[in-house]
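Readers outside the structure-tokenisation community will struggle with the description of the input data as it stands. I therefore recommend that a typical entry be quoted early in the introduction. An entry of this sort, consisting of the sequence and the corresponding backbone structure tokens, reads as follows:
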Amino acid sequence: MPRFWIVDADQEALAWVEQTLHTVLPTAQVLPIPTQAAWEDALTNSPFPDCIITEYRLPWITAETVLQTLEARRSPVPVCLFTDQASEEEIARLFDQGLHEYQPKTPRQPSLFAARLRRMLRYHDLSRRALFFQDIDERVLNATDPQIIATEALRALAHAGHAIWGASVIFNREMGDTAEILAAYNFYKPVGYRAAIGPPPLLPTQEDWTIRPIETLPEQSMIADAHARGVRWIGVYRVTLDNTLFGLLYLGWRTSEQIIPQNLEFVAKGAQWLSAVVCRAIRLQQERATLRQMQTLTDLILSLNRSLDLETILVRLLAGLKEVVPYERSSVWLYNQDGELEIRYLQGYPIDAQELQTRLYKYQPSPSQWPTTRYIAQTRQPLLIPDVREYPHWYHTDISHEIRSWLGVPLVYDDRMIGLLTLECTEPNHFTPQHLQAAQTLASAAAIAIQNARLFQTEQQQRQALNALRLASLQLVSSLDVTEVLTTLLQQSVALTQADDAHIFLYNGEKLTFASAFWDGQVQDHPLSSPRPHGITYTVARTREPKIVADTSQDPLFAGAPWHGAIISIPLIAHGNVLGVMNVAWHRPRRFHQNELDLLNMLADHAAIALENAHLVKRLQAKIKQLTTLSEASAALREASGTQNIANMLVQQALRLSDAQSALLSRFLGENKEQAVIECVEGFSPDLPGRFYSTQKGITGHLLRHNSPLVFRALYQSPLTQHPDWVEHIGPALALPLRTRDGEVVGMLLVGRPRDSEPFTEEEIPPLQALAEIGATALQRAQAYERMEEDFMQTVLALSHAMDVRDTYHGDHSKRMAEWAVAIAREMGLSDEEIETIRLAALLHDIGKIGIPDTILLKPGPLDENEWHIMHTHPLIGAQILRPLKRLEPVAKIVETHHERWDGSGYPYGLKGEEIPLGARILAVVDSYGAMIDHRVYQPAMPHEEAVREIQEQAGKLYDPEVVKAFLAVVEYLGKPLS
């Protein structure tokens, strides 16, 4: 059934040629091609004919174009030129380009035309076969890649069979009912695509073709593709090798009429011959791949055995494995000490191993109980699942929904399964038995390397743990800084367990307080979060039992907690007392190993010892501090003078001794002690000193009645508080009576701490009582001394007044001098204390005249030299009278030098300039001024204006210029009578 294409737009010529062909070849198939569209459709959708008859030149094509198209498509179709348009030279040129025959349109020669066509058909068959073998020789026999060989062979076979679609598949007996598309012709599936095609179809005996509709194709995608290409009929040929079914050859045609038996016979022989070539190439490729795989495995095994780092081994394992077993995702699981599988390394996953392990915590059963892992663990054999969707025991998770092919290989060491290696692919039927064998070989070597690394890692961890304990022990005996010791323990805990943070809280039987923390890779001065009243830290402190939480989201103690993860909380117990709690936490759920728990318990024991030592050291230091403070306070208070000074000192020493932040001292007044005055405060309102209050009730009333210390947990809430607004900031407090050695209570000492602070303990009371007794005695002594000073002062003032009466007609001389001196001192901006000293000095400046005889003091005429010498001693006598009273020492110095002059001409020492005390320089001016304006028995009074002028003239000579300047500023009211 020969096929012809007639390329001509002349309808008469088309009809004549078609009639002639059917006359001589009744079975001939004739396709007229009168247009360009018909030509393109034939090239796309029709198998090539046995002969093409063409006009020389048409508007849309030429005979030369036809020849070029056939050459480009490597199609050996003979071409007959049927034309009257071409010249002899043009026809000759076409023969050089591959033209097979020429027949003029006129005259019509049907018999000759038919004979030439028959000869062309015979030639075409021989030419086609020759071209087929030429193609085979050029494209197939020189190739080594089985896929290239199969692809070129299929194309040649399809051309030989005039097919428009084709596929060649080979069976993989080791993979069950799967076949691999080794080559494709006009088929969209990629080379190497695997499909489950079921048992090989029941076909007739060897070398026979089976012609069927496309609906009988074994795979739905093949049916859809063939249908889209216009294929309606397929031919299936069994390719055998050594009497074994090797594969199937599929060819497709549009119509059954296009299927020519003699072509199929030729294709069958070619396919059988080429299958041996393909098989040889496949085996050669497999041998080469096996050699490369063995070399890769050898190199990888050597690489694994060179390392003792588990992480490095796992990275090398999965990276090297990908070279021999192409996978998309892989994982290594190892058994922990509790017999549970844990993910240790991942490749190709969008998350890391730790996050995946966290997700798996919520699955029940655990990975160790999944059907696949149970089967591998029980049989110690690998498991290959071509398509997990067809595996009834597959355990689905949210991270495995894309998996189609799965390969699991046990990691076996010393006949014991230590872990599992898994390989995954999203394409079904991806892994082969060869892949399984390679993975198993590598897994055997990897198991040894992994076990060696784990043993080394375990030994290293034990060494690190022992070193950590050694360092902790050394610090316990070498450091008294509990914070430093606890910080080191926390750092070791985090480093040895790969934790994210660790905390230690102290416990006093009721309340937890922060001690130390380590997070974000460094020591911290505050916790990540404070313990909740009913949280894990308080629970462990109260129950005295450790608490292990692998997933806080599943534990009621963490309901409403701001974080999720895992935590170990251990009480720190020494001598039966809970001293604190150590928390070690991870920011993700995890399982804990017994060696981790043992290590943390040992570190917790060291922490408890450190806290116990710290308490002992703290108590010892407190005792030393108390004794030192008491000793220093006793010495200082013995030397101190003045009630106010002693009160201030006592308050400061009490604060130092008690670690308090607030203190108040009040002194009881009168013989009946019915009132008290606040002498000194620290940490209270500065307005309180000088306030009076009743001692008949409240805290002072209690102290007077019971004469014993009073301890408060919260002073601001105590009903004994008379003035709540004074103590609203005070929590724990201690009130002590200031009781002297002879039993008299002279006042109260109150020390306090802020709200929510540690209360005062029994150990803190005795040293404060001792301090209060020392202070009370010092206050009693100071009060007695102050009374004595006051009596002495009154006596001295009385003597001074007596001297005024004795020495002058005016008994108010010293009083007026005091007023003038104070006015000048204020003008010069002196302090209140300095002004008071100058005032007293003015009142007492001539008290030394009590030692001058009346014959000299009241002499109406001038004094002789000897008398002046005696008179010049009165400043020294006055200073001697005043100096026994310490607080009058500054006054005595002014009295002693008030007759010194600016130019050094004064007495008794001849001081000059600023060597003279300022108070004495002021008295020098006012004393001189007073002497000038007073009437004396030996000298009449000088007018005020003349006296001022005299003072002004002597500025810089006898008197300090600055003092004179101040004197002149206030001179207008100095001369006025006193009110």
Summary: Residues 433-478 form the longest helix (46 residues). The mean pLDDT is 84. The first strand starts at residue 3 and ends at 7.
